[in-house]
């Protein structure tokens, strides 16, 4: 018997996130996910008059490809997957992982080959700008361990987070979108020596309420590329290319990261040296999901933490372009709730959020108690 929560999630993804219409083709890419879930997505698709295409993948196989595959192997795979992506209108990426450290022994160069072929040609060039897409992280025992929870408790948490009322959240975001798009100067203060200033003048603000990521709950824009100055010290662990980093600290000068340190400083700088754009920032975002309250080293959850921001080295998104291009896009999170040291964010001198809570009355709808 299929878990009814799985069926509900499939309906959220196909109907709300992808907005599937009769006649649409949808690619359902399932990586280490129970087969029942892509089956449910296919069922919902068929009921709406769509055409499902299911592709099953494995992180263990992907690791082998990165370690032992050649550039020619990856170019062929990119050609095949790009052709498939170009012929669908919708995409669901359900990404599980029995071992979140599966890629820890893959070298930076091996990762760059993947990122410059499949990731760039299929996902950045086609999937993101040309399909109605959504990506979810599937719950696993490995994720439960990272979160310090039992497998059952984590599953319950997961389905609460992923099936909340995203329509209500989207409506509450609109006043903040208007404020961000009218603003110029941002000033962030926080624990440690975080003291950062930059401009967002002329850049759009994008509301994220269940259309592209599940779980969702963020509003993002981007800094003017060369405007960032000061220091940011993140207070959550983050994983990239299989390596965990804690106490990440960046010093910016005229937009560029000129100093970078973490508990894995060498690997951190290897990522930042991937290309010129990797040391500039492509995204600035606020997390508002009321069910996500602490970090678990999983970006799709951590970047949505209520009372958090993420300030992202790497490429900007096409719907909020600040001119920065890179093979990487690394969402690193700073939580500003009292238990994490608090903090303040000002827009053009006005206090917008203090200790993780929105201060202006028109933004109170984004505080946790008003979204549950």
What is the number of E strands? Answer: 20
Shape: globular
Mean pLDDT, rounded to whole units? Answer: 94
Total number of helices? 10
> Per DSSP, what share of the residues sits in E-state strands of 2 or more residues?
25-35%
Low-confidence stretches: none
Summarize the structure in words.
By secondary structure, the chain is of the alpha+beta class. The chain is about 35% helix and about 25% strand. It has helices at about 5-15, 35-45, 60-70, 70-85, 110-130, 140-145, 150-160, 165-180, 265-270, 300; strands at about 25-30, 50-55, 90-95, 130-135, 185-190, 195-200, 205-210, 215, 220, 230-235, 240, 245, 250-255, 255-260, 280-285, 310-315, 335, 345, 350-355, 355-360. The strands form four sheets. Strands 14-13-10-6-5-18-19-20 form an eight-stranded antiparallel sheet. The chain has a five-stranded parallel sheet with strand order 2-1-3-4-8, with helices on both faces. Helix 1 crosses helix 2 (about 35-45), helix 4 (about 70-85) runs parallel beside helix 5 (about 110-130) and helix 6 crosses helix 7 (about 150-160).
